[in-house]
């Protein structure tokens, strides 16, 4: 009985947790894109 409860909690995600992970991914992507853009503009000059 306890094993089932533990497995259900592990697979169930909180909405806030999912939102934080999505936002972290978006911010990481923006940081990489900004660094790449800065590198391109620096090399073109």
- Indicate the mean pLDDT: 86
Label the structural class. Answer: mainly alpha
Radius of gyration: 20 Å
User: Alpha-carbon distance between the termini?
Assistant: 66 Å
**Would you count the extended β strands for me?**
0
Number of domains: 1
Discrete helix count: 2
Task: Write a compact overview of the structure shown.
The chain is mainly alpha-helical and 45 residues long. It is built from two helices and no strands. The mean pLDDT is 86.
Question: How would you characterize the overall build of this protein?
Answer:
The protein is 89% helix and 0% strand. The mean pLDDT is 86. The chain has one domain. The N and C termini lie far apart (66 Å). It is built from 2 helices and no strands. By secondary structure, it is mostly helical.
Identify the notable features of this structure and list them briefly.
rod-shaped; 0% strand; single chain; mainly alpha; 45 residues
Write the layout of secondary structure elements.
Layout: H1 2-11, H2 15-44
